[in-house]
Amino acid sequence: MENYKVDILISDKDITQRVNQLGKIISASYSDTNKLIVVGLLRGSFMFIADLVRCLDIPVEVDFITVSSYGSEMFSSGNVKILKDLDGDINGHDVLLVEDIVDTGKTLEAVIEMLETRVPNSIKVCALLNKQSRRISNIKADWIGFEIPDEFVVGYGIDYDQRNRNLPYIGKVVK
Ligand code: IMP
Ligand code: MG
Question: Is the C-beta atom of 100 inside 6 A of ligand 1?
Answer without folding.
Answer: yes
